[in-house]
Design a protein that fits this description.
CATH superfamily: Spore Coat Polysaccharide Biosynthesis Protein SpsA, Chain A
Number of helices: 5
CATH architecture: Alpha-Beta Complex
Number of strands: 9
Largest sheet: 7 strands, mixed
CATH topology: Spore Coat Polysaccharide Biosynthesis Protein SpsA, Chain A
CATH class: Alpha Beta
Distance between the termini: 27 Å
Order of helices and strands: EHEHEHEHEEEEEH
Length: 183
C-alpha cells in the first residue's frame, strides 16, 4: 500500500510485541500518543500490539485502549511463539507504508519515533536508534521522570543494530520472503 501515491499522508504501523506487560503498556501508550502529536500533520499511524499469549492483564488493557482509540489494534498469537515470532507476525499484519518495531517497556523511548519517521519521509528506507550509552533519567518534579532521548544516534541504512527499527514495507516483505525461501 502506498497512500502517498494518492496524495494522502502515509500510514505508519507501529508494531509492539507484548508478553505480560500490564505494568508498562499504559505508560508506553500515553508516551507514544503524546510523542506522535508532532508527526500527525505528516503521517497517519496505527498501533499494532502483538500479544504473545500474556497471562496477566495485558490483553484486557490493550482492548480497553482499543475501545477508546481506533488506532489501537491487537493481534493475539495462538500460543507463546517467542519475541521474534511476535515481530514477524506484526510485520505480516501491518497495513502501513512503513513499519516501526518498538518494545513497550519504554527502554527505547517512544519520543524518538517522530525523528525516525522524519528520516523515512526524507527518503531513507531504513532508520533506527542506536544505543549510545546508558540511559539517563531527569527528574521533572513531583516524582515523575523522563528518559533522555539524546542517548540515541539516528543512523540511516546501516545494519546490525536492534531496537527500535523503522523500515519501508517493501524492504520488510522482501526480507521476510528471502528468509522463508532459505528455510
Amino acid at each position: 500500500m502506498d497512500s502517498r501515491a494518492s496524495g494522502g499522508r502515509p500510514l505508519v504501523t507501529i508494531v509492539c510485541p507484548v508478553f505480560n506487560e500490564e505494568k508498562s503498556v499504559e505508560l508506553f501508550y500515553a508516551r507514544l500518543v503524546d510523542a506522535m502529536k508532532v508527526a500527525e500533520d505528516r503521517v497517519r499511524y496505527e498501533l499494532l500490539f502483538v500479544n504473545n499469549r500474556s497471562t496477566d492483564r495485558t490483553l484486557d488493557i490493550i482492548r480497553s485502549l482499543s475501545e477508546k482509540n481506533a488506532r489501537v489494534n491487537v493481534l493475539t498469537l495462538s500460543r507463546n511463539f517467542g519475541y521474534q515470532a511476535s515481530i514477524t507476525a506484526g510485520m505480516r499484519h501491518a497495513r502501513g507504508d512503513c513499519v516501526v518495531n518498538i518494545d513497550v517497556d519504554c527502554e527505547d523511548p517512544p519520543e524518538m519515533l517522530p525523528r525516525l519517521i522524519d528520516k523515512w519521509l526524507g527518503g531513507a528506507d531504513i532508520a533506527y536508534g542506536k544505543d549510545a550509552g546508558p540511559a539517563r533519567l531527569h527528574n521533572k518534579g513531583r516524582g515523575s521522570f523522563i528518559a533522555d532521548t539524546r542517548k540515541y544516534d539516528h543512523h540511516i541504512g546501516e545494519t546490525g543494530v536492534r531496537d527500535p527499527l523503522l523500515c519501508a514495507v517493501e524492504d520488510i516483505v522482501s526480507a521476510i520472503l528471502r528468509k522463508f525461501r532459505a528455510c
